Structures are given as structure tokens and as C-alpha cells.
Amino acid sequence: MFKYTSCGLDSVHLRNGYEEIDTPYGAAVGIHDVEGLHRVIGLHIVINKPDLLDASEIRFLRKELDLPQAQLALFLDVAESSVRNWEKGRNKISGPADRMLRALYAEKAQGQGRVYQLLECLSQANRDAYVSVLELEESEGGWRTSVA
Fold first, then answer.
1. Which residue of 32, 81, 87, 130 sits 20 to 30 Å from the alpha carbon of 56, by its own alpha carbon?
2. Distance of alpha carbon 107 from alpha carbon 101, whole angstroms
3. What is the extent of the structural domain holding 80?
4. What is the DSSP-derived secondary structure letter of residue 77?
5. Listed residue (21, 19, 22, 15) closest to 40, CA to CA
6. pLDDT of res. 97
7. How far apart are CA 91 and CA 95, in angstroms?
């Protein structure tokens, strides 16, 4: 068994799917299908872990989502320092943020993107341009917002 710590998690062991390689710098290990391996690790965490995500799991999922801390913070509607503190183990992630991060990862791993797109849109919404009076009109295609 090979203890796979390069992913940032301490509890991952590989039975196979790797090979020892001699390099000019010494022995190294090559992992087969790293992307597939990380997808299985991530899905196992988001689906099976009953407790809140810990610091290394949050960091792993964020990196697999290819999001900087600032972007994840926007998606979860928290301060960037909150994400940083979760990843350093200084604070625990909140339940709602934990569930949203799991949903984002599960969706990406399964090749979809609607939640991600919605959160991206919401995080970029210009709240100053929001009009509190909603004017609607009926057209042949159904109801729609009225463009002034």
C-alpha cells in the first residue's frame, strides 16, 4: 500500500494504480489517472463524511474546483478570511457552507455546472442595479419582465 499524501489528505492509501520510478533525482512514484483518483476521493468525502469538512478536505475540494479562496468566499457569501481560517483549521466551516461546497464539488465531478453557474451569477450580480419594483407583461410566449 502506498500512502498518497500529495493530495493534501493524510488518510488516502492506494492498493495499486501507481508505479515506482527511478529518476536522476532518486526514486519517485507515478500515479495512474490522477484526475480520476481525485474525483473518487472528492466524491467519497462529499457523499460519505457525516461530520463537517475539516481543513484539509476544504482545501482539497477548493483546489479540485480550481477556485481561489476569494472566489469560493464569494460563492459561499462569506469573507475570504473565513475560507482562509477554515483551511488553516482556525475555525470550523458552517453547516450551510459545508453543504454548498459539497454540492459544488459533486456537481463538477459529475460533469454538470448549473449550481456553479448560478453561484457565479449571484456573486457577480450588481446589487446597486436591482430594481425593487417589478413590472411584468404578458406576451405570446408567456409572462416576462417589462423592459423600460
1. 32
2. 10
3. 50-145
4. T
5. 15
6. 97
7. 12
All three cell numbers of 118, joined, read 448560478
Strands 2-3 and 13-14, bridge-based pairing: antiparallel
Domain contains 59: yes
Instruction: Say if residues 61 and 46 touch (Cβ distance below 8 Å).
Output: yes
Q: Is residue 74 part of a domain?
A: yes
User: Phi then psi for 59, rounded to 5 degrees?
Assistant: -60, -45
When divided into structural domains, the chain yields a total of 1
38-92: per-residue pLDDT in tens?
999 999 999 999 999 999 999 999 999 999 999 999 999 999 999 999 999 999 9
Question: Considering the entire predicted model, what is its pTM?
Answer: 0.81
The whole-angstrom separation of Cα 112 and Cα 13 is 28
E strand or H helix at 138, and its extent? strand 136-139
The Cα 128–Cα 107 span in angstroms is 30
Q: Under DSSP, is residue 103 helix (H, G, I), strand (E, B) or coil? A: helix
- Can you tell me which residue has the cell 483546489? 63
Question: What sign for the dihedral angle of Cα 139, 141, 144, 148?
Answer: negative
